[in-house]
Amino acid sequence: MLHKPYPTHTIGRGRIERDGSLTLVQRVDDEGKPPHERRWQVRQTGPGRYVGTMTDALGPVVIDQVGNGYRFRFKMKGNLGVEQWLKPIAGGNSAQSLTKVKKFGMTVATSDAVIRKLSSASAGASGRSSDAP
């Protein structure tokens, strides 16, 4: 189950739908694996609270605004629990992403990435991280 850290690159394109929900489609390139697509659908359910779906998640993705950041929580196959924090970086075009994956209460993977908004001529938002699933 333990692997050495490896680079991953994700690029995505998102849009706000007429109902106010967010649709995000990402292309995920993990070193040594074929690229795959990840889809998110997120809607606001109350002040500072969001719920959505994501193709890699089992069940709902719950997102809470905490201070100026956002905490994402969801489950993945293999009895994995994921907590991801997104915190805006000054300037408004990027955010720090810190992710922990736990199994039976023990951290089995981490990711530290920067997500950047690219120009509309580019392919969307991009982030790089190193993971050790």
Q: Reading side by side through the largest sheet, how are the strands ordered? A: 1-2-3-4-5-6-7-8-9-10
Low-confidence residue ranges: 123-133
Strand content: over 45%
- Number of continuous helical runs: 0
Radius of gyration in whole Å, from Cα? 15 Å
Alpha-beta content class:
mainly beta
Largest sheet: number of strands, sense, barrel closure: 10 strands, antiparallel, barrel
Order of helices and strands: EEEEEEEEEE
- Give the total of domains: 1
Distance separating the two termini: 7 Å
The shape, in one word, is: globular
Number of beta strands:
10
The percent of residues in helical segments reads under 10%
Residue-averaged pLDDT = 89
Characterization of the model:
The chain has one domain. It is an all-beta fold and 133 residues long. Strands 1-2-3-4-5-6-7-8-9-10 form a ten-stranded antiparallel β-barrel. The chain is globular. The model is unreliable at 123-133 (pLDDT under 50). Helices cover 0% and strands 70% of the residues.
Features:
disordered C terminus; 10-stranded antiparallel beta barrel; 0% helix; mainly beta; 133 residues
TL;DR of this structure?
With 133 residues, this protein is mainly β.
Q: Could you give the topology of this structure?
A:
Blueprint lengths: L5 E11 L5 E9 L5 E11 L2 E6 L3 E9 L2 E8 L3 E10 L4 E10 L2 E12 L7 E7 L2
Antiparallel strand pairs: 1-2, 1-10, 2-3, 3-4, 4-5, 5-6, 6-7, 7-8, 8-9, 9-10
